[in-house]
Amino acid sequence: MSTFLGTPSLPAGTGNLRGAQSFPAAARKALGDSQLRANLGAATATIRAKRSAAVAEVPDWEQLRAAGSALKATALQRLPELLAQFEANVIARGGTVHWARDAAEANRIATELIRATGSTEVVKVKSMATQEIGLNEYLAEHGITAYETDLAELIVQLGHDTPSHFLVPAIHRNRAEIREIFLREMPGVDPAITDDPRVLATAARTYLRQKFLTAKVAISGANFGVAETGTLAVVESEGNGRMCLTLPETLITVLGIEKLVPAFTDLEVFLQLLPRSSTAERMNPYTSMWTGVHPGDGPQRVHVILLDNGRTRVLADETGRAALHCIRCSACLNVCPVYERVGGHAYGSVYPGPIGAILSPQLTGVTGRDDPNASLPYASTLCGACFDACPVRIDIPGILVHLRAAEVDARRGGLPGPQDLAMKAASAVMASPSRFAAAERVTKLGRLLGRMRGRITALPYPGSKWTTSRDLPMPPAETFRQWWSRTHDGSR
Predict the structure, then answer these.
(1) Most exposed residue of 117, 197, 198, 474, measured as fewest CB within 10 angstroms of its CB?
(2) Are 100 and 306 in contact, with CB atoms under 8 Å apart?
(3) DSSP class of residue 294?
(4) What distance in Å separates the CA atoms of residue 434 and residue 228, rounded to the nearest whole number?
């Protein structure tokens, strides 16, 4: 898909996709929280080790990754056709399909559907799409209480916090902190509750049981939608999702339009890739699928809200559209050295980590240099670990570079910034052998600055902009030219 002259402007995504401050500012604050770094380091190291072992069991893992990537690319190429097919099949099986251009429209539709049932409470399956549009907050403003039923999401909700990880939204909390949250916020909790994980899980189960049995409306996202049958699929580990998907009378699903796959058999690939990449499990403990309405069995009113919210504008970028391949496994977060040190809140958006760094700016668009999302493509070392871990082979480093180039191109002209001046100076030096040799001699002075610690930890302005957050290696005692001259009898 390409954008041509005359194409109507594509609406930008709205909702919880943009933070209040730039990534460097938020990351600097997070780096000062030693407890946060300890929690993140321990959790991501454990998940990484388990995932590596689970992936190593599959001899054709790379072929599976390639198949998943090809299926996603095909689905995006055929998206208009698949969306129409999916809608027709949902309606044919008794469901209702709604279309939402942005977060405001999706929230309004969901609220009207809930009000039509007369309910003021809903139970929710863990859903990134509903977090993206800020559905819980919108419902609260309109007198409807949403109860998260996923344990980690419940911890975040009770703690009046925001998620910082796709799979483990409360990854930044330890057991002692969770116990304090339960004691403070959970009605009817045993005052003698300990921080043993089993005890905490039992307390949450007891609290949620009554909600499952009384709620008339459930809200979910979906991991996949199957165009050829109109089927929706949710994978989870706790069983709370299945309770929500089967007990209430009305089920409302908010589905990002990129979640469609053409055929039911395509799930065979993704249901192998997803559990090993996310929870390091060979298969999901609970995989729930539903197709329309079945009289006397499960929800009798099934609604699907197809959400765009900026996805069409991502699709219009031939390089960046691969970000829509994401199956929300969080493997890229767990291997990212940047995420491991600052956590998800520093990214501002509900989509943190490497995938968030490429997805959020594309969904919202970037309004200028001061836009917090303009800094996200730079929230990476470009080490490539995210690409190696991605089960559908999204070239995250390549898209990061693509977005950086677009951001630089967008602000060409006018007064040059510090980076522009630095690049022009470097270009002038590197264009002349004599100037480069002179620069090498000057660089050797850096050995004086680094002689105490073996590295340079502080430079005067403008070099301080770099050493504020990073060290510089001490220059070598001998330049390459000197080494060549010494070892090759002075030949050029």
Answers:
(1) 198
(2) yes
(3) B
(4) 67
SS3 at position 455: strand
In angstroms, the CA 432 to CA 489 distance is 24
Give yes or no for a cis peptide into 462 (omega within 30° of 0): yes
CB 130 within 8 A of CB 157: no
CA 49 remoteness from chain centre:
20
**What number of other Cβ atoms are within 10 A of residue 209's Cβ?**
11
How buried is 48 (Cβ within 10 angstroms: 0-12 exposed, 13-18 middle, 19+ buried)? middle
Element (H, E) at 242: helix 240-246
Q: Which two tokens stand for residue 125?
A: 């399956």
Q: Is 404 exposed, middle or buried (0-12, 13-18, 19+ CB in 10 A)?
A: middle
Q: Is 122 within 8 Å of 329 (Cβ atoms)? A: no
**CA 53 to CA 332: how far, in whole Å?**
16
Helix (H) or strand (E) segment spanning residue 286? strand 286-290
Which pair of tokens denotes residue 324?
């829509």
Whole-angstrom Cα distance, residue 286 to residue 240? Answer: 9
Return the sign of the alpha-carbon dihedral for residues 410, 307, 132, 167.
Answer: negative
Angle of CA points 121, 122, 125, to nearest 5°: 155
Per the prediction, the chain carries an average pLDDT of: 92
pLDDT (tens digit, 9 = 90+) per residue, 460-491?
Answer: 887 887 887 778 888 888 888 888 888 987 66
In angstroms, rounded to a whole number, what is the distance separating the alpha carbons of residues 462 and 457?
A: 14
Q: How far apart, in whole angstroms, are the C-alpha atoms of residue 270 and residue 136?
A: 29
DSSP per-residue codes, 147-185: EE-SHHHHHHHHTT-----SS-TTTT--HHHHHHHHHHH
Total residue count of the chain as it appears in this document: 492
* Interval 293-351: pLDDT, tens: 999 999 999 999 999 999 999 999 999 999 999 999 999 999 999 999 999 999 999 99
CA distances from 52 to 18, 98, 283, 328 (A): 32, 40, 15, 18
How buried is residue 211: exposed, middle or buried, by Cβ count under 10 Å (0-12/13-18/19+)?
buried
Question: Tokens in use for 425?
Answer: 């100076």
Q: Which tens digit of pLDDT belongs to each residue from 345-397?
A: 999 999 999 999 999 999 999 988 889 999 999 999 999 999 999 999 999 99
Between residues 202 and 468, the one the model is more confident about: 202
Give the pair of three-digit tokens for residue 20: 């209040």
Q: How is residue 298 written in tokens?
A: 């499960």
